[in-house]
Structure formats: structure tokens, C-alpha cells
Amino acid sequence: MSIVPKETIEVIAQSIGITNLLPEAALMLAPDVEYRVREIMQEAIKCMRHSKRTTLTASDVDGALNLRNVEPIYGFASGGPFRFRKAIGHRDLFYTDDREVDFKDVIEAPLPKAPLDTEIVCHWLAIEGVQPAIPENAPLEVIRAPAENKIHEQKDGPLIDIRLPVKHVLSRELQLYFQKIAELTMSKSNPALFKEALVSLASDSGLHPLVPYFTNFIADEVSRGLNDFLLLFNLMHIVRSLLRNPHIHIEPYLHQLMPSVVTCLVSRKLGNRFADNHWELRDFTANLVALICKRYGTVYTTLQSRLTKTLVNALLDPKKALTQHYGAIQGLAALGHNVVRLLILSNLEPYLRLLEPELVAEKQKNQMKSYEAWRVYGALLRAAGLCIHDRLKIFPPLPSPLPSFIHKGKGKIIKTEPHKRKLSVDSSENRSPQKRLITTDGLQSQDHTSPAPMQVDNPIENDNPPQNSVHPSSSEQASDASESESRKTKGKEAGKGRAITMKAILKQIWKDDLDSGRLLVKLHELYGERILPFIPSTEMSVFL
Amino acid sequence: MEGEQLNGIQLNEFLIGYLKKRGFNSAAKGLEEDLHHNKGSDNNVSSFTSIDYHNDPELTKLIRSFSQSEDDPTRYRECYSKLRSWAYNSLDLYKHELLRVMYPVFIHCYMDLVGKGHTQEARVFFNSFRKDHEMIHLRDLQKLEGVLAPSHLEEMEFARSLRKSKVNIKICQYSYDLLLQYLHRTESTLMLGIINEHINFQVYSGQPTSASDDIEAVTIVGSFQDTANHINQKEIQWGLLEDSLEDRLEKTGGLLSDSEKGQGESKDGDADDSKKRSTEIGKQGSSIKKLKKDKAGNATAKVARLETSTVPPAPRVKSELALPVMSTDVEQSILEDLRNRVQLSSVAMPSVSFYTFVNSHNGLNCASISHDGSLVSGGFSDSSIKIWDMAKIGQAGALQGENDTNDPNVGPTGRRSYTLLLGHSGPVYSANFSPPGDFVLSSSADTTIRLWSTKLNSNLVCYKGHNYPVWDVQFSPFGHYFASCSHDRTARIWTMDQIQPLRIMAGHLSDVDCVQWHPNCNYIATGSSDKTVRLWDVQTGECVRIFIGHRSMVLSLAMSPDGRYMASGDEDGTIMMWDLSTARCITPLMGHNSCVWSLSYSGEGSLLASGSADCTVKLWDVTSSTKLTKAEEKNGNSNRLRSLRTFPTKSTPVQALRFSRRNLLFAAGAISKPAS
Questions:
Q1: CA triple B572-B575-B579, angle to 5 deg
Q2: Helices (H) and strands (E) in chain A, counts
Q3: Of A33, A56, B207, B218, which sits with the fewest C-beta atoms within 10 Å of its C-beta?
Q4: Are A52 and B655 inside 8 Å of each other by CB?
């Protein structure tokens, strides 16, 4: 009934020498004891308030006892508030740490220092309403959200709320973790360990407090380390891991992260050594960009449009380096076929015209440049191919194509093969550089076992073979180029012949989507047969 | 039937007892008288009337059921929880009115149970429904929680006043009907009894009021509310004193600027201002002069001054006290200060000078700053008072040494930066400077008030009168008189030259915690632990206003310089602005989250500064606070807008605040090391 159990009363009675206390008496006393205790506390709180304190001390209780004409309890006065300790095993049982003191120790101890005397220090808390930043004042970094302030000011004149910055406390463990990761990223010496770190970054929960530090770190290092290819690659790996981590809420930091990522995609120079495979980095980053867009595009509607704008600008600026063009193409390609159709394919023809001089070995003496040009060409091809591939996949399964047509097509291809060589010389067209190339090259080894990038289905591997084949010597590169060129013309010849009939057929079959049909045709015009591997077999059959 | 065996007299007695228990005292008395009368005159009649009860078996049954349930403590719980669930399920529009009824019913159920000795059941009952009322009535509940025996009910002031008085509840007609219908339908006479006995419904027609605007619902003051309403009808003269220094300034200010105009030079911006003001006076004066010939200068000056605040000028009243004569030196210096006052507003913020007590070892109980900010006093729990002269501290060390040699209080160890005043024999709770700064009054737990001279650095008088610790003492705005308040629930008015109090103001139901003079010296305001603020007439000693609305003990008070408003701060951090003439709260200012130790109005009354245990000084816009109320009646509360600035200190609770006459804000507090 009372919060004071009767056992307590009995114990107290025993302690003052009353041994024969009746349990009924104890029961009667308990509520009264509780009431008296509450009464004393009520008065003690008053004393505390009038001493302008918010912590109750023993002297307040003494004061309350004095008020009630009760002898105060001596020996408990203390300078500061009591420190309570929790009793182990009990949730709400506390005790004060009251150690036994040996008199000898007290007597032998040196005299304590005299306490410092009370003094007054004067300072300006505010000068005309503004708090000066002096050590006497509370550290106050006024963060004012400009937009919010404006609203305030419009509403009610000069009333401005000062918001205290949120203090961000990072545990020691997290600090160490961050240091370690940063070290690993910078040192690049231990790839195995770094891999482990990436896994940890991608999976560990509780890393969220570090995200602002990581974004900062990445931004700093990317801007500083554009010459350090491996560092950049490592950083992009970190970005990917952070994106992958399901426990991290990275959205608020995207705006800080995106510039660094886009830099790694379309920067003119990434790494300073010839051996640095910056293509790979660009491809990797392109995928990263696509991942970000896919995941956060719905939340930030402007994200993708801003990104594509940047990339298209990079692509269409002829002054930009080919490496930048490559990055832009890869980035756009990763964003999906719609982007490619709208932004790349619409600009494809003029761009290819621009690219052509670079592709020709004679015109472009700089090996590096011409290699880059071919990379760009490959990327474009791939983008277009993937686009058309995806596009065609959308359509419902076709009604069984006409078998006669297939035969016809096959026959034609076979036919055109030998035919082509004859025509190749006088294949006038409007592409004079190609023609020249073919004529001068002469070799035309048709059975040349080319790695033929377009025949590989895997789009990522798609880019690698040419590189391998090109690298060894310039002659091979030339031959490769010539070969592919020859094919192109070949395809064009054939394509041209077929285009008219094709169009008709396509129109018949996909009346509702003339667009893609036209697109296909156009691509075929531009790329020739190279585009063919991207077309799924069923459609291919129709196409041909 | 058993009922038939009850004889008439028994039944009548029983009925009387029942009626009494249910609170129908007058009805019971009437019945009793009736019976006596009948007994005397005709026995047959009584038997005849009793037959009525006998022949009505249903009534008998009902009565019997009452008698059975009478001593059953669990019935309280049942009935209350039924009423509670009914109230919670009632129509939304009327719900808050009905819920308001629940709290008095709850506490009276509890006290009934305690009063009958069912301690166990009372505790269970209390704990099971405590949560419902915790939000608004936490502190009352904490008090009541300790009441466990019938004797406690008698002993505890709060409980006794609750038992004795009725609670006023405003309720709309429909809610009232709903409640009565419910009580009759469910035959819950237990609840009906409690409601009849302890609640006084003020039924009004029309729609129920919105839930938020009834502050009176917060505190249960019982019949006290009636007296409060009655008292608050009294007339008060809140205006400023005629021929005050402010008035004189406006007159002389005009003259001065005229002469300055003649010289064709102005020293500073303030002079410019006064010049402008004087020209304005000239312009407007011409129109008004026709109306008021005598006080033309006075009135026009006021118009000019108050133009910005668009408040009608404060009326002038005569002083009821014989005020001390001010020496011309002091008067001149005050006039000089007033002339150089910086005009403050929501766009022109004051500078704040902060005095931090270091090494106070948790012993600083109070701090005070003189009107010019040059002297700072601290009252300590070791009974000492220390006074610092800030002007001397600012000077060079050599000079300080000189001073030290003159100082009789300097110990053998040497330099002390302060003057030590010893004399009290208990913690010092207040130390207050006289307006010119030549005297200090201190109050202590030793029940005495002492007067000290800052010139002689010694004790002059010891005033004994209070029986318990004196919590606060304040000089009147003109000195000479002072007011004190104490744990003995009284406030007293004294003069410096008599050791007996002139007036004793009694009426608060608990400790009087703080006291403040009205600027015209005719009234004092007191804040108390009974959560009210009262205004007392100094001349008659009567209570003229009761301000109800705080939810916890009132710790600080401040009066606006024009005498129209009062601000009070409480233990929870709420500050309330009151209109003295209507005794209504203009607006509660929320923002502090701990005790508001100190409040101060700026010189022209446009800003209110508050210092709190949450280590901040806040500035509040008074003009908008008073202006907004009209617009606010229509739309929602926009409390946040009125807080102008918050100045956090470095873990120093702000114990004292004072606007100097020139509108520089001084603040003081002891730095508290965070608990390690």
C-alpha cells in the first residue's frame, strides 16, 4: 500500500532498539513515513529553488528539516551532488559510494590546497544583439539556411532564429575505421586487403556516420589525384561499395559525390602512364553512373537530365579530347537504350563524319590518336547496337518469318561476298576516305582471322579484343582497320541494295513502330553488318 | 420482503445519512426538520409518509443497493472507469469539456477512499488512472500521492482546501445535459454524489469553447476562483506617478534640445533623436494644446514617445506613499542616464554584459546588480554576502592595491577583489541594491533581513519579523521602502527607519517566493508556490488581483516601466505576460526549458529579458506580444515569433538580469562545471 514496505519499518525499529514492534503497528506507520518523507522533499525542493540550483543537495534536506523544526541529520553535508551507483543485479536500486576512511590516512595526508576565492569575470555576452566570438561565450557557429531565412524575413521582419549546429560525435572505432580505409585507398599496396575493405564497406551496418567523411574524402582525392590512375580506380570502387551497402542512406550526399564520379568518367586525362587502362576506369564509372541514376532517378528527377546534359555537351564539343567523348558515350550508353536513341543516334551521322578523319591511318599519324578514335568508334557501335538490340526485344515475338525470305537473304549475303570485291574499287558512294583506304591498302585479306568485336555477344568483352589486337603493331592495326572498313562498305553495298525492299517489309510487319524500323535501317546504313550481331536471331532472320 | 421489515424511523435516518453522504446537505437538513416537525405534531403523518417508502419495493431495493455498495471501495474504481470510458467515447465536440470533469472526480474519489481508510485500494485506484491527468496536473498529483491516511487529509493544506471547496467548471448546456443523462441512466449515484459535492457547474448556452483557451481549467483552486474573480473586479491605478522623472525628462529634454538648437550643434545620435522628438512635439502640440492647457507639454511628449508603440499613454496617478526626497545630484544623474538611453526595439537589440562568478563552489544562492551595473552582489549559502565594485576591478593593479589598504575587510593574506559582509546566520537568499546603490538589503534563512551600507561596508539594521526563512526582499523604485516575502506565507512592507513591518500581506496558500514593486510604488506583486501571483495594495494591505495560470511555483516577477503589464516566470520555464487591469494572461511565452530565475523589462518597455537555469538569456518582443493578441484570437498561436534572440552562455545558469537606465543589459550567474 505504501511505497515503504513494513519490513523497512521493522528494520528501522530494530536499529533504534525497539524489538517488539507489532506488524500492525509497522503497517500503520508505513504510510505515515511515506507522507513525511514526501513532505520533507517538498520543502527541500523549495530550498533548492531558492538557492538557484537544479540539483538537490544534502544541505537542502537539512534546510527542509530545519523548516519543520526537526533536528537536521549531521555528517552528510557535501560540496557537490552525491554520486550514486547502481547496485549490480537490480534495476532501480542505487547507493552512494561511501567508503570507510582510516583516521590515520586522514591525519597523515598533506593539507589540502586552499580553495580558490570567488571572483567575478566580466565579458560581453552580446553586442547590439550579436554574440561576439570570444572564448567566454559558448561556441556558436551560426548556420543559417539562406532560403529559410528569407522566408522568415518576409514574414516577420528581422526575426531570425539562430540554430545551433548539430554536433557530430564520431566514435573512436569509426574514426579508426575511416583512417584505415583511407590509408588502404591511398597506399594501393595491398589489393587483397583493399578488396576485403570494399566488402566490408558494402555490407557493414553502422557506417552511416562516416558517409559525409567518405564523400569528402572522395571529392578531395579525385580532384587532387587525377594523375593517379590506381587511386581513382580505388575511389570509384569505394563509391560502388557505398552504393551497394543497404544500411547506408547515401541520397543526401549524392550531390557531393556526383561531380567526382562524373570526373572519372569524362575527364581528359586519367592517370599519367601509358599503361594505365583508363578505358576500363571509364567503363566502370559509366556503370556506376547508371546505377546511381537507376536507383535515385525517381527521387531526384533532375539527376539524370543534368547528367545527360553534361555528357552530351562533352560528346558534341569537337574540341574535347576523344577520351572525353568515349567517356560520354559510355556513360550515355549505360543509361539505357532510350537515352542512346535520343541523344546518341540523333547525333550519330554528323559525329561519325567528324570521327572519320581520325580513323584513317594515313590522316592520323599519331598512333595514340587513331587508337583512341577506334575506341570511340567501338563504343559508339556498341551503344547503337545495344540500343537496337533492346529496341527489337521489346516487340512481341514475330509471326513466323517467311522462310523464302530467309533463304533469299542468305543467298544474297553469299552472293554479295564475292561481288563485293569487284565493286569495292569503284564503290563510289559518298565516302571517299574509305574508298581510298581500301584501294591503297589493297591487301583485303578476307580470311583474316579478325577478332571481330561485333561478333562477340558480351558487350563488355566487346571492347577488349580490338585493343589487344591493335596494341602490338601499327600494321596490324591498319589491317584491322582496313578490314573492318571493307566490311562496312561491303555491308553498305548489300544494305543499299536491300534497303528498299527491307523498308517495305519492315513497314508491313511493324506498321505500328515505323520508328525502330527506320532506325534499324539507318544504323545499318551507317554501320553495315557490324550492327548485325546485336540483332536477336529471330529479328535478324526477318531483317535479313 | 426485507424492505418491509425496516421501520419508518430507521429508514428516515438512513435516508438522511444517505443524503448527507451524497452531498445533498440542504436536502437532508430539510428532511430532518420535516421529520422533527412531523414527530412533534402527528405521528400518523410520519407513518403515512413512511408507508410510501415501504410500498415502493423498487425504491427500497435501490436504497439497499446503495447501502451495500457504500463501503465497497472497488465500486469507486468501477464507477470511475465507467464514467471515464463514457467520457472518452463521447462526441468530439464536447469531449474536452466532459474530460475536464474527470480530474476533480478523480482526485475526490481518491481522497474519499483515503478518507475511509482504504489505503490499499486508494493507491491502486490512483495508479491506474494517474496517467490521464499527469500531463496537466503532474505537480498536484505528486503532492496528493503522499496522502495515505485520513489524518494526512486534515494536515495537508492542499488536500484540505480541495475537500472544502468546489471546483468551478464552465460547461456548455449540451455537455451538461449529456453528463446528467449519463449519470441518471447508469444510476451511478456514487459519481453523481461526488460531482454534486465538489463541482460547481457554470452552464452557458451555445457551442462549447475550444479546448485550448481555458486556462482556468489548468489549476484547481476551488472557491478560490470565485474570490479571485471577485477580487479582480477591484479597480487599480496602474498608471505612472505624476511628476515622475520620466515626465520631467520629457519636459527638460525639450528645453535642452531647444537650447542645443540655438547652439547649432549636437553631440551624438541621441541628441538628434531628442531634437526630432521635440520638433514633433511642437507640431502635434499645437493641435492638442487647445484641449489640454495645463498638461499640454506633458501629454504631447507622451504622444511623441508612444508613437512607435501605438499604445495610449499611461495615465498619471498620485502616490499613496510619502516618497523620499531625492537629492538633486542623484536626480541629475538619473536624468542624464535617461537622456542617454538607447532606444531598443525588435530591430535594435541591446548589448549584454555578463558577470560570471567563478570558484563559487556551488554556494552562490543569489546575485544582484545595481541599477548602473557597477556593483554586483552575491549571497552565499555560507551566510556571507560579497560585493564587487566592477569599476574598480577594471582599473589597474596599483589602484586596486590602494583600495585594498583602505578596505577594512582585507584579511592578512591580502587582496580580495570584493567586500565581504558577514552577519547572517543562514544561507542568504536575496541581496538587493537600493536604486542609488548606497544600500544593500539581504534576506536569509535565519528569518532576518539586514540592511548594509556599501559606503561603510557594514551592517546598519537587522529587521526581525518573519517567522521562517525570508525568500526575497526588494527595494521600492524610490528606495526607503522595501518589501519582503517568506516561507511563512506572508509578504511584508517595511521602511528603512523602522524595525517593525508597516504592512503584512497574508493570503497566499503556500510560500511567497518572490516580490516585486509596481513602478508607481502603490502596489506590490508576489509570486507563490501556490502557483498564483497576487497584486497587493500597499496602502490598504489588501489583495487587489489574483493571477491564475502558472502550473508550477512562480520564481520571478517583473513590471513593465509603464506599469501596465507584469511578467512572471515559473519553475517549468514558462513566462506569462499579464495585463494588470484585467488580470488576464496576455500570452504565455514558452521557450525556456528550466527555471526562469530572472526577468527584466528594458527602460522603455519594448523588450523583456529572461534568464534561466537552462543557461540562456532570451529576449522577447513585448510590443508584438501585446499587439498580436487581437489577431491571435482568430488564428492560432504563433508563440515562437515573439522570441527575438537567445544568447546561450557557456554552462552558466543566468541568476540575475538588469537593464540599466541607459538600456544596457547586465546578467550574472555562477559558472557550473558539468557533472563529471
A1: 145
A2: 22, 3
A3: B207
A4: yes
